[in-house]
Amino acid sequence: MSPKNVNTALATVCALFVLWLGLTFILAPEASTEGVGLPKWPAGAGDGFLIMKGTRELAMGLVLGVLLLTGHRRALGWVLLMEAVTPFGDMLNVLAHHGPLAAALGIHGLTSAFLATAGLLLLRETSGAGAAVGQRA
Q1: Between 128 and 14, where is the model more confident?
Q2: DSSP per-residue codes, the chain
């Protein structure tokens, strides 16, 4: 499997995951808080904020999908790298609120690392040296 195919698969996984996450927060906001490392939101008090979070996640997933489908691979790499900031911030938020270390690092930290890695691989693929190597293969 070529690096381009691997990178495309990684970017697709990222886009689908972010879209799924956004839809989860929109369609089931109370249920979506379980397992992310923060205490369950009080009933009826915060659904609007969670739906707003879901809308933003959904928009982020759509951006990834559009860049992937239109073949703008370098821009996709930069956006994946930029979107790695979100789960990193979530990780810091969980840690700041004394949430479980396993959730902070295992869910949010790994997600941030996965997005950053996928972004860096795409940027490497589309750099001058990487593109020249890819053309010879």
Answers
A1: 14
A2: --HHHHHHHHHHHHHHHHHHHHHHHHH-HHHHTTTSSSPPPPTTTSHHHHHHHHHHHHHHHHHHHHHHHHT-HHHHHHHHHHHTHHHHHHHHHHHHTT--HHHIIIIIIHHHHHHHHHHHHHHHHHSHHHHHHHHH-
